[in-house]
Amino acid sequence: MQIRVPPLPGDHYRPANETKGMKMTKKLAILALSTAVAALSAPAFAQSQGDWTLGIGVGYLDPKSDNGTLAGFSAEIDSDTRPIFTAEYFIRDNLGIELLAATPFKHDVTLGGSVDAGNVKHLPPTLSLNYHFPTNSAWKPYVGAGLNYTIFFDEESPLGDLKVDDSFGVSLQAGLDYMVTDKGAVRLNVRWFDIDSDVTLNGANIGKAEIDPWLVGVSYVHRF
């Protein structure tokens, strides 16, 4: 004789889709935890006194929206993307002096929203003092400040002889390195430059170009 025990309240099989969902949730939780542990346990990208780093990447230079008044018209200067290069020497642990270089950026200049005033090229060599935060992980943020000397050349204009004076001003930056090897890192970097230049056309001063651009860069940085 068999004795059947009636099921207690709540004592029943879970639906198949609910069971699969619970298993998937556990797998995702384990994967997320493993990824976090791997990132935090990765060896730090050391920034020690005497180290050198070299970086190569691309930079998007975007002047501010209001670029001053030239010849009585509002000026607009467009954006450009070029290769960028950095070299940094660490004078103290986590404290480095960095030089930024690039291939020439080229910008079109428009007056009053429609008048083609020409184009100009420039180079933005910048010397900065950077502090890299010691995080003891693969992620290393940093901040920096320095001086920029902008060299303008190859000015061309259908309106005549266009000249843009060189500029000297401050530069600020912030960035984040992520270590991909014990000596290499991928870097995301944002810089701001104070660039204001007098402009002449056919020898006559026509105003000041207020450029003040942002530079957004992505680079590979290698430590030596």
UniProtKB/TrEMBL annotation:
Residues 1-46 form the signal peptide. One of its GO terms (biological process) is transmembrane transport. SUPFAM superfamilies: OMPA-like. It comes from the Bacteria. GO terms for cellular component: outer membrane. Belongs to the OmpW/AlkL family. This is Outer membrane protein. The lineage of its organism: Bacteria, Pseudomonadati, Pseudomonadota, Alphaproteobacteria, Rhodobacterales.
